[in-house]
Amino acid sequence: MNTNMPPPIKLSVIIPLYNAGGMFTAFMDSLLAQTLQDIEIIIVNDGSTDGSQILAQAYASAHGHITVINQANGGVSRARNAGLAVARGAYVTFPDADDLLYPTLYQTLMDMAEQDNLDVAQCNGERFFLGSRRIKTLIPTDRLVSTGVLDGPTWLHKALATKRYLHVVWLGIYRLALIRRLNLDFEPGLHHQDIPWTTELMFNARRVRYTQEVLYRYYIHDQSISNRKRTGMKNVEYQRHYLRIAQRLEEINERYRGKIKMYPEFAYQVTHEALSICHSLRREPDPAARQIMINDIFASGTHKRMIRNARGIKQWYQLLLWLRRIYAWRER
Q: In terms of Cα–Cα distance, which of 218, 183, 213, 215 is closest to 197?
């Protein structure tokens, strides 16, 4: 018997790193303070230019369980895929390098996963607004409380029904063997790729559990991709990601129709994501950019996609209101 075998790795923590700035040190301190010890940390430096990459290498030199992968800037999806390719843990997770982890985050999720043989364990989190210092719970407990073990589609149905659920990979840990069996990568170049990725993973997960405990702090600041204000062609390009997200969600629903129970919320979220483009239209000050966005909606068939997937009186009302507006605003 070989007594020199290293202990098994329970969790691979994959961190895409691109110019995280001064927040990277606080993040790493919170990661190194985790009560769960059986982890490997994979930092994927995605072409940082602000010194973050030097800090990452210093952490790797000081801690044997930290590895740094350096690659040219290719976006968060390529970085996550690079980490997945070398991960050795039973489970994986993907925190953002400018957020903060509560000390018991990964111990709590791993205890849940091992106790109930889970494919996915998820927790609650909080938004921290850097400007006002205000804190807001992501999923209020009057909307959703801790669950027992559920299959993935049932959990996703319950979560989406709260109207507060975020498709983010940093709120959970995921069985690596399931990800590899599905050959489930993140799509390079697509913002908010968490949405289709988590949807397809949940469609295949057999055992999922959620705790309402708040264990992750998500910082809201102007520099993050999702919170940056855009106008003109930058807004046009950004909204095209939502067009693709709506298309991907509908395609996933069609692939799994007849294989899992299809709850109304799965169609609802297709129209929900597409309607976000309509809301952006109203805020766009550039008339030319607004027309391009409207043309994109029609050229991609998104107007028909929203009609096919709308569910519930409130969403139908919003959809009909917006369709009337974009038809009126459209220049022919």
A: 183
Distance CA 283, CA 199 (A): 29
Q: Is the pLDDT of residue 24 over 80?
A: yes
For 14, phi then psi, to 5°, come to -105, 120
pTM for this one?
0.93
Burial of 164 from C-beta contacts in 10 A (0-12 / 13-18 / 19+): middle
Q: Are strands 11-17 and 91-93 parallel, antiparallel or unpaired?
A: parallel
- The torsion angles phi and psi of 255, rounded to 5 degrees, stand at -65, -30
Three-state SS sequence of the chain? CCCCCCCCCCEEEEEEECCCCCHHHHHHHHHHCCCCCCEEEEEEEECCCCCHHHHHHHHHHHCCCEEEEEECCCCHHHHHHHHHHHCCCCEEECCCCCCEECCCHHHHHHHHHHHHCCCEEEEEEEEEECCCCEEEECCCCCCCCCCCCECHHHHHHHHHHCCCCCCCHHHEEEEHHHHHHHCCCCCCCCCCCHHHHHHHHHHHCCCEEEEEEEEEEEEECCCCCCCCCCCHHHHHHHHHHHHHHHHHHHHHHHHHECCECCCHHHHHHHHHHHHHHHHHHHHCCCHHHHHHHHHHHHHCCHHHHHHHHCCCHHHHHHHHHHHHHHHHHCCC
Give the C-alpha separation, 163 to 139, whole Å.
Answer: 9
For the stretch 238-269, pLDDT in tens is: 999 999 999 999 999 999 999 999 999 999 99
Query: Measured between alpha carbons, how far is 212 from 277 in angstroms, rounded to an integer?
Result: 31
Residue 213 main-chain phi, psi, to 5 deg: -65, 130
